[in-house]
Amino acid sequence: MTEMVYGSIPSRVSEPVLPRWWRTIDKWSLTAIMVLFGIGLLLGLAASVPLATRNGLDDFYYVQRQAFFGAIAMVVMVGISMLPPSAIRRLGTVGFVLTFIALMLLPFIGTDFGKGAVRWFSFGFASVQPSEFLKPGFMVLAGWLMAASQDLNGPPGKSVSFVIAACVVMLLAIQPDFGQSALILFGWGVIYFVAGAPMTLLVVIGGLVAFGGTVAYESSEHFARRIDGFLNPEIDPRSQIGYATNAIQEGGFLGVGVGEGQVKWTLPDAHTDFIIAVAAEEYGLILVLLIIALYATIVVRSLFRLMRERDPFVRLAGTGLACIFGVQAMINMGVAVRLLPAKGMTLPFVSYGGSSVIAAGITVGMLLALTRTRPQGQMGDILRRGR
């Protein structure tokens, strides 16, 4: 009787989660991420052995740890990439709140591991760097606030996000961690620009950042030492930059050969901040160009897919995530070739580090989720629904 009055309603068989995920995911970006992680393990086989030897550990101790944390990162990345934008928004917001609280606790219960900056929580068997996990959460939160500000009678999302960004930067400056501070401000500025910020305001913010950098130079010996070392035309051959520069020059186009590099025996951070020097020395310019191309593939493809997205939150948050991922890689490689002052920033998926690789997995997992193909994001579907 009901069907006679109202007519039958055709049921739509829902597509299983995995086939739908595989059909809508950006497979080129996913492949590039997997290749980067594989390159990181390959370089870890060379770069981490001297460190393990110095610490009296098994030769492949750090490689095994990197593979373990990397496997966790891959699972986390795939799991997050299956989530809808609404779940990404909730995950990013909750994650930001938790990591922001962790940042506030760092000055009291954090450690510096003798590096002059209190950035980690040490648990004996492992350490965690909260700022690595804060970045993707903040990009999602800032994108959500700025997207909400575009609604009629919406909240002042741009102002609120700026206040939050300023609080984050102050907490990072206390550590001190000016590299992550600059990355946070850059990501926020990109989202603000895409959301329609006036150029005059961005110039004013740039002036404030320059003023803050001057104050940091005058008040922080740690920051001033790195800037002075960068500006000094003479490179100390016994410094990390000196060793890295010499290794890159020695590598040439084809490299000195697998396992034949020497920089890994002299650079204390060869497995983390200066992993690209190991790649350049042993495998030459070819591998370095491949690594750059892989990062460019992820960032450029993500931005092109986001340009077609009609949801403001997805577009803004995705742009912020793509840009901080690409710029972090650019900063790491720029430091190694002395185009930028030393920052203490890892190369995503390639450098050794549990916090680094898992945080990178979260970042690109969110990015892959936001760049998945969604029919509701196409103009043709919107017009058809309006008929």
Which consecutive residue ranges, at least 5 long each, have pLDDT under 50? 1-12, 377-387
Mean pLDDT: 84
Q: How many strands in all?
A: 2
Rough outline = globular
Can you characterise this structure?
With 387 residues, the chain is mainly α. Helix content is 71%, strand content 1%. The protein is built from 16 helices and two strands. The chain has helices spanning 2-6, 17-24, 27-54, 61-81, 85-109, 130-149, 157-174, 178-194, 199-219, 221-231, 240-251, 263-266, 275-307, 312-336, 354-370, 379-386, and strands at residues 121-122, 127-128. The protein has a two-stranded antiparallel sheet with strand order 1-2. A hairpin with a 4-residue loop joins strand 1 and strand 2. It starts with a helix and ends with a helix.
Topology (elements, then pairings):
Elements: H1 2-6, H2 17-24, H3 27-54, H4 61-81, H5 85-109, E1 121-122, E2 127-128, H6 130-149, H7 157-174, H8 178-194, H9 199-219, H10 221-231, H11 240-251, H12 263-266, H13 275-307, H14 312-336, H15 354-370, H16 379-386
Output the keywords:
single chain, 387 residues, mainly alpha, two-stranded antiparallel sheet, 71% helix, globular, disordered N terminus, disordered C terminus
